[in-house]
Amino acid sequence: MSPGDITTERPPPRVAATLGLLRSELGLTFRRLRTFALLGVLAAIPVLIGGVVRIETGGDPSAGSGSGGGADGGGPAFMAQISNNGLFLVFTALAATLPFFLPLTVGVVAGDAIAGEASAGTLRYLLVAPAGRTRLLLVKYASTLAFCLAATLTVAVSGLVTGALLFPVGDLTTISGTRIDYSEGLWRALLIALAVALSLVGFAALGLFVSTLTSSGIAAMAGTVGLLVTVQILTTIPQLDAVHPYLFSHHWLSFADLMREPVLWENLYANLRLQGFYALLFGSAAWARFAGKDISA
Amino acid sequence: MAPYESAQRTAGDEDRPTGRRRVARYAVPAAVAGVAAATIGLVPALADSGDPDLPKITAQQLIEKVAASDQQQISGNVKISTDLGLPSLADAAASFAPKGGDGDGGSAAAPDQKLMELVTGTHTLRVAADGPQKQKLSILDDAAEYSIIRNGSDVWAYDSKSDEAFHAEDGHAGKAPEQDRGMHEGVPATPKELADEILKAADETTSVTVDGTASVAGRDAYQLLVEPKGTGSTVGSIRIAVDAENGVPLKFTLSPSSGGKPVVDAGFTKVDFAKPAASTFEFKPGKGTKVTEADELERKAPKELKEPKGPLGELPFGQPGGDKNGKNGKNGKGGAKVIGKGWSSVAVIDSGAKGGVPSSGSGSGSGSGSGELPPEAGKLLDSFGDKVTGKFGSGTVFSTRLVNALMTDDGKVYIGAVDKATLVKAANSQK
């Protein structure tokens, strides 16, 4: 499904054309003021969490676990450890943003991908270029995925910097109780950020599909975000246990398994498989819809 | 995607797609959806199928294999599902027992608090052992883990959610005797421990057979089937899957005689018999981690407050040995007496609580406020209770799917893994 698969089979001119299209799409996505605003909000969340924990513990590491907010199980994952080790702010921030903030921003970008062009009246001009609808769709999806990665890394880097400024850093304790050194911790943090970014792959495809259904950018964004909220509510209803494994957010918390020692891979793989299915399912559905759609705007 | 590329391009460029082609495109997502649903839904089921072909073996040989098994190194993941028929025993128990975890002087990392959680629901555990000196047991939770680590003379418990640790020196008798015992046996809370319990109980009252083979965690295994011979027991059957190669029990399933879902289903989902990394058993609390010493906790909590926790606190560890509950009651606490034999044995405990169930409205009549339990606990007991009368007088029966207890109005408690009628009969025989 990735653009790479197709371009490798194509003669060079097409590769260049696809890359050109991708470059222009990426430029379009990341030069928009809206994208900066979304990333700015994401970057502010770790600062907010870090600030609150810092104020509450008074910067005294030993005061941490008792009053760190997460001590009695409340608050997002890893909350209790932040005051002991700033690196945990990365994990906490990702755990806090993954359920809503991150997919919210992805929903905005993905929902706008096709429908936004349609409502702005630019879609037909894009299709005049001899790029083909499939490639346009793939390029749109690729730039949405690039945004997923950028959004996740924004949270992670902001958490890393804030954590290092406000709290001590050093060796850390994994959730299995073993100790790993800081460089190993940074490596895990990177892996976790990637795992979180990959968790959004399925939802991005869903957003893209919704985007092909309507010619109103706002409707597509609202629809995508509405689906997100619906799914997140469904996951909290225990009676729907049988349905949960099929929801795209089912394995989202699995990124925390990277902090176990040894790492527990099963759920991470399950997450990748689920996201892959979502990407294939809604990617192909978006293609089926978009390839045969009347473009009137 | 490639085969569709050309069709699509013409569609995109000039030709209006025909209706048929438009519908045909939707076959792609429909097919993907079918495959995805099947894969997500059916993979676990498929993984269980396919019984391996193994040479025939008698029950005796299989038990010997287990007994002879000297597997010192093991690591793996264990999945435990428990359904005692109590929707939230852990919550209920919390209302009986003083909350050491949240209250003053307690620690969220104290083992007996945490292990209680294993009594209900499904949990994933990680176990690792390297000889009698090094063991580790972790209860996996969402983005958190609770670990008990034994390394030489140190026993550590670490709760990552609250970042609190609990430390005890070996030989410290006061705390969590259950898991100390378990850990000495080499492989803590693995199916081995459970199997040992069952095999000990095997006598003329029990039928033990080999019932085919199974594949557990990718290993070939024999299935040992243990069934009570008599009637009256709530235990229907116990199945133990034993590794065909090294005799390590891999899976333990306890089904109630009333049928339905197993009461306890504990088995490896992944197992490795290589030596676990030494770092697995190392624990050093990080700076800022709150550490509670076992002695400290003991001193802070007044003796009598801890008492009610005893029988309940013992339950969870190795809890999968559901029938152990009954057995523990039998051997254990002061003043206990056993009526009957084998599976249908009933333990009698004189609780000394004269008023029977200290309840207000259960109809046990003489609930003259003996005040031993807090009112909410009394109310809770009411909701579980079921009034019975007989030659012995009258009392209240509390039922779970496995263990039933009869609390008579004169303060005696009859408890066993037997049905209600057997309990009443046992009570009558005492009069």
Automatic annotation (TrEMBL), chain A:
Keywords in UniProt for this one? Membrane, Transmembrane, Transmembrane helix
Keyword Zinc appears in the UniProt entry: no
Transmembrane stretches, start-end? 36-55, 87-115, 136-167, 187-210, 217-237, 268-288
Q: Does the keyword Amino-acid biosynthesis apply?
A: no
The record, for PANTHER family, names: INTEGRAL MEMBRANE PROTEIN-RELATED, MEMBRANE PROTEIN
The protein's name: ABC transporter permease subunit
Recorded source organism is: Streptomyces luteolus
From TrEMBL, chain B:
* Source organism superkingdom: Bacteria
Q: Kindly give the SUPFAM superfamilies that the UniProt entry links to this protein.
A: Prokaryotic lipoproteins and lipoprotein localization factors (SSF89392)
Q: Which portions of the sequence form the region Disordered?
A: 1-22, 282-338, 350-385
Q: Give residue spans, biased composition: Gly residues.
A: 319-337
Compositionally skewed regions (Basic and acidic residues) per UniProt:
290-309
**Keyword Transmembrane helix among UniProt keywords:** yes
Q: Where are the transmembrane segments?
A: 26-47
Q: Which UniProt keywords apply?
A: Membrane, Transmembrane, Transmembrane helix
The name this protein carries in UniProt is DUF2092 domain-containing protein
Give the taxonomic lineage as stored in the record. Bacteria, Bacillati, Actinomycetota, Actinomycetes, Kitasatosporales
